[in-house]
Amino acid sequence: QVQLVESGGGLVQPGGSLRLSCAASGFTFSWYAMSWHRQAPGKERELVATISTGGTTTYANSVKGRFTISRDNPQNTVYLQMNSLKPEDTAVYHCFADRGSLYRAYWGQGTQVTVSS
After folding, report:
1. Residue 76 needs a FRET pair 20 to 30 A away by CA distance; which of 5, 35, 107, 115 works?
2. Which of 12, 13, 29 is nearest to 98 (CA)?
3. How far, in Å, CA of 41 to CA of 78, rounded?
4. pLDDT by residue (tens digit) across 14-59?
5. Burial grade of 90 (CB within 10 A; 0-12, 13-18, 19 or more)
6. 29, 76 in Cβ contact below 8 A?
7. What is the pLDDT of residue 45?
């Protein structure tokens, strides 16, 4: 069974840091591009960061310079290091696995990040 299980969310003060993890199972992780998306209540889902199978990364302008996506293929895990957190980063963060349009893609169930003083 395919699973993407996010962890590491929680409540943090502005300026603080969190590291999210997404543990994958049930598919060949190294063949998939991975990404993090977030969605706040009443807002559209936003692409936060991507990492290709080769390790190339992209970031939304809103998080560039503050967030870092990485992957550990032997551990089947993708991470999102979040620094200098702002209240507007508050959202449910979802992990996404994508091998291209010929293949099914997978979503995790999400982990809540709340940035508040």
Report:
1. 115
2. 29
3. 25
4. 999 999 999 999 999 999 999 999 999 999 999 999 999 999 999 9
5. middle
6. yes
7. 97
Looking at residue 113, its pLDDT comes to 98
Mean pLDDT of 90-112: 97
pLDDT at residue 97 in the model: 98
Decide: 66 and 59 in contact? Cβ < 8 Å. no
Please give the Cα distance from 11 to 77 (Å, whole number): 22
pLDDT at 7: 98
* Per-residue three-class SS string for the chain: CCEEEEECCEEECCCCCEEEEEEEECCCHHHCEEEEEEECCCCCCEEEEEECCCCCEEECCCCCCCEEEEEEHHHCEEEEEECCCCHHHCEEEEEEEECCCCCCCEECCCEEEEECC
* 30 backbone dihedrals φ, ψ, rounded to 5°: -65, -15
